[in-house]
Design brief:
401 residues; alpha/beta; 5-stranded parallel beta sheet; 3-stranded antiparallel beta sheet; 10 strands; 9% strand
Length: 401
């Protein structure tokens, strides 16, 4: 971790030095740089060099000595990035844990008592053996595995992965827990036409006005929503036989803390409204279709909800700890959710649906691919299934869910 930080700081240092010497060489050869505030006056015959976030420095075609200098700097930075990748891909030492690195490539001895049916694995549990292999190396990385009965044996891996994380089939000789309380019947979702229930769900946090514009739009268009709902009922009679889902909608872009953009405060000051249009339409759709909604926009609200249900944020967390079927959020909200769930994030990853206005291409979404090919962005590397991203573009007729 220390080496990685040093390399990162060194990269930043070299980048700053490159900018400094670039500016110096330009001053030596061309005189003072020209700064502008209005990009409309840029001459098409010149090159644009981004100098900082607010200004643009215009330079003519680069001098030969400047090109050589920049190539040398880029070569050094490229070499340093490769070194950082090497350090990043190495498994860091775990404090206080005897990580069995030398045994990583050794096959795990299977116990006949816990033999698994290959056909069942291929059909219903394709990742089971992969998870067992990882457990053979990483079961000591967190005490929660030992607390759940894992002792390093093949059987303990299978039992844990079948009864706790559900990656493997339940062993036939293992007793299944008795249901002391009879499972309640699923609540049927019915179309809702009264807007008052939706307004009560949109509860502001403190003195914020995050939902003011959304509420206004919902009121103005509610008659159109009712007309559309009635037409849908006439066409699809099966809408009356649906299970009601519990859905968390977290609008991270409205947050005042945690990386949010406070867009709700800017709606009457010329702020962006496109994203709020999408969210108001999504909220209206989910509510009218009869689902049970919980809406949050501040990081504190999300933290309170998560802490109430997830007491232990460990890799052994069970996805059922959050009584939710789906979580709708945006990239900002996704980052907040990751921070708040910590090591338990992977247990709830499949519940996520990210409202991403223009979409995230798989190349940017895949962490290792984007990193290897230098496609690193602030919003990429989420490692979600591409169909978990919801965009404003229509699909090709296939169900995206």
């Amino acid at each position: 971790m220390i080496h990685r930080k040093r390399c990162r700081y060194l990269t930043y240092f070299l980048f700053v030095v490159a900018i400094f010497w670039t500016s110096t060489l330009m001053n030596m050869s061309k005189g003072p740089s020209l700064y502008i505030q209005d990009a409309a006056s840029i001459n098409t015959e010149t090159d644009i060099l981004y100098h900082d976030e607010t200004q643009l420095a215009l330079t003519t075609k680069s001098q030969p000595n400047l090109e050589m200098f920049l190539k040398m700097i880029m070569k050094k930075i490229d070499h340093l990035e490769k070194r950082i990748d090497q350090l990043t891909n190495q498994k860091p030492p775990t404090r206080g844990i005897d990580f069995p690195e030398a045994k990583a490539n050794k096959p795990i001895e299977e116990d006949p008592k816990c033999k698994l049916d290959g056909a069942v694995l291929k059909k219903d549990f394709p990742h089971c053996m992969e998870k067992i292999k990882w457990m053979g190396v990483g079961w000591k990385t967190h005490s929660c595995y030992k607390d759940s009965g894992v002792d390093g044996s093949f059987c303990s891996f299978v039992i844990y992965l079948s009864e706790v994380e559900k990656w493997c089939p339940w062993l036939t000789w293992r007793p299944k827990p008795q249901q002391t309380v009879q499972k309640s019947q699923d609540i049927v979702a019915s179309v809702v036409t009264n807007i008052d229930g939706l307004m009560s769900v949109l509860q502001e946090s403190g003195k914020s006005k995050n939902y003011a514009w959304i509420k206004s739009r919902l009121h103005n268009l509610w008659s159109y929503w009712m007309e559309a709902a009635n037409k849908l009922l006439d066409k699809q009679s099966d809408l009356k036989n649906r299970k009601q889902k519990t859905i968390l909608v977290h609008l991270g872009l409205l947050s005042h803390k945690g990386g949010g953009f406070k867009i709700g405060d800017l709606t009457d000051k010329g702020g962006p409204l496109g994203e709020l249009v999408q969210w108001s339409d999504l909220l209206a759709t989910l509510y009218i279709l009869g689902h049970n909604l919980r809406v949050t926009s501040e990081q504190e609200q999300l933290q309170q909800y998560i802490n109430h249900h997830i007491r232990v944020k460990s890799p052994c967390a069970n996805g059922n700890q959050l009584p939710l079927d789906i979580i709708y959020t945006d990239i900002t909200g996704l980052k907040q959710f990751k921070r708040l769930t910590a090591d338990a994030y992977s247990a709830f990853k499949c519940k996520l649906r990210v409202v991403d206005s223009f979409g995230t291409e798989p190349a940017f979404n895949h962490e290792m691919f984007s990193k290897t090919n230098r496609m690193v962005t602030q919003w990429g590397r989420q490692n979600l299934i591409p169909q978990q991203f919801f965009t404003m573009f229509l699909c090709d007729g296939k169900d995206p869910s």
